[in-house]
Every structure is written in structure tokens, then in C-alpha cells.
Please model this.
Amino acid sequence: MTPQGERKTVLVVDDAPANLHLVNQILHDTYKVRIATSGAKGLELAAGKPHPDLILLDVVMPGMDGYEVCSRLKSTPDTKDIPVIFLTGQTESAEETRGFEVGAVDYIHKPFSPSVVAARVQTHLALRETREQLERQLLAIQHEMETARQIQFSILPQSVPQTPGLDIAARYVPMTAVAGDFYDYAVIDRNRIGILVADVSGHGMPAALIASMMKIAFAAQSQHAADPVRVLTGLNEALIGKFQGHYVTAAYAVIDTAAQTLCYAGAGHPPLLLRDASGAMSALMENGLFLGAFPGVSYTAVEVPFRQGDWAVMYTDGIPEMMNPSEEQFGEPRLESYIGEHAKPRASDFIEGLLHHVYSWAGRAVEHEADDDVTVVAIHFAG
Model:
């Protein structure tokens, strides 16, 4: 027999003394049994602490019947999760359906079978315990995911390095609590800055862990941050053999405001988009193989002029692959069109406008219901 302090409490609500006596006889050796002879008294006892673990509730009672009692229990936060089993002599399916609609979990029909009563009570108490255990585990997982989210955000740049003549802004929108996108900056000197954007295949914790590895791997490339080819080569070598079943696409650009140039290299990544002061668009697709899968990969870079009034936009594929309710992708042409027509005075305003446009086109709210992680970095050569 279970120790008294560990017994579950069963509340029996019935206006018939004979039924109360019989149920008490069946359950009292195993559970703590509390008794109410009316619906009002049952609600009072259910609201008291400690709350009962399960309620056996007669359907037909004077004044307040079982359906109303159950409805009130389910509408009250303190009692809504207590399982209710109806006690009834009725066998019509419509009556049983009504009971389930108001929140009951089961029925026990009269006249009572001791074995059936004991089995139903045991089953639903076990189910409640299992549900509560799962809820506790879910809360623990949610807490861990929130901690992981905070850690991942902490590895992203907390501010934008100040480079004379450049206005830079970035936005990172994870699909879930943690994500596989990553971006970072490398300050080379007063006039030069390197910008990395990367995207790990897949989603969730595995992708987030690999994205975290990018922070260390990128920091190790600081000595040759001015050379996009060496940066991507070094990243690939650092990631080889570190994971299976995933890969990383990346783009790295070095902007030199003194020479007014942009040097770019990619690794399986969407192209860098350029907009000149007149609104004309072009794309840099200088791509080698993605990172982390093949040793000895060679990368190449392209250098282009970057004049006052020009824009460069780096991003992950969560933007062009965003889909609307018709399952149509936003696509590169729409992205180029928006950038060409909607330059803003400030890079941060441009990014907010772009994300609002893309998510509105997809029929979604920014930061909700995304198909993929989204990262955007906008660079304006303000002069």
C-alpha cells in the first residue's frame, strides 16, 4: 500500500449516499477519497488546496448537474487540468458526446463494477502523471533552448565597427530559437573592413552548434582578413572533418574606402548584390564549393569599384527562398528589383524596409512562421 503522504486524492461528487459508499469502498485502500454530495460542494472541494488529482462526477444531480460542474472546473485555471470521469446510468451516445465536449476524459457506467472503477481511476491518474512529466520535460527543454538562443546571439557582433565613409547594418532573424546563420566583421585597418555571412545547412541545434564553430574559425583568419580567398580557404580547412551531414555556404567581402574597391569571394552562397548611385543592379557570383565537405578546395575572388552612393547587400537564402501561400518563392529577381528601387538614407532603414516587404509578400509577420533563417547585411558607401 502506498504511504499516506504519497497517496493520490480522488474527489467523488454524487448525491446518492449508496454510490458514494460503494466508490469509497473500492478506492479507499489505495487513494485518499474526498466526498461531496452536491455540485456546489464539489466545486468548493476541488478549488481547495491541495487540489484533487482526479474527480469522479455524477451526471444527474439536483441543482447543478455534472455537465455544469465540469464546465466550471475546466474554465477555472486552478482546476482545468484535473481529469474528470463521469458517473452515469445513461448509455446514449449523445449524452456521452456532451460529456466529452465539456471536458470529461471518460465515463463509468452504473451499476459500478469494482474492477472497472479501479482500472479507470488508475489509468487516468497514470495518464495525468505522464502528461505532467512531459510538461516538465518540455519546460526544461524550452529553458535550455532559451539559454542556447542567448549564447548564440552573444557570438554575433554586438555593434557595427565604425569605418569612415561606410554605413553598415545587419539583421539576423532565426527560424527557431537557435539557427544556422552567422555573420561577423573583421576590422583590418581604418579604411578596410571584412564582412562574412554564412549559412549552415539544416536547422535547429545541430546547425546552431556548427554556426558557433564559425566564430572561432573566422577569428583564426584575422592575419589574412584582407584576402577573401585565404579567408574562405582557411575556413574550409578549419571545418573539414568537424561534422557530417551538414555543410556551410559563405560569402566574404573586403571593402576598402581609400581605394574605393570591394573584393569578394563566395563558397556556394547566394550572390552579393550591388546597386550603384543611379539604381543600376549587378550581382557578384564568384563561388567555389561550400565549406566543410571537401579538402583542398580552391577559391577565387573578384574586385570591383565601390563608389560613393553605392550599396552592397549580403544575405542568406532565407530571403530569396521565402514562399508565399501559393508556394511561390520570392526569388532573386524580386530581391534585385526591391534593392534597385528602394535605397534609403540609412542602412538600418533599408534592411527594415526590405524585411517588411519580403515578409508582407509572403503573408507573414517578421520573425514568425519563417521557412528558414534569415540574415541580411547592407553596406552603403556614404562617402
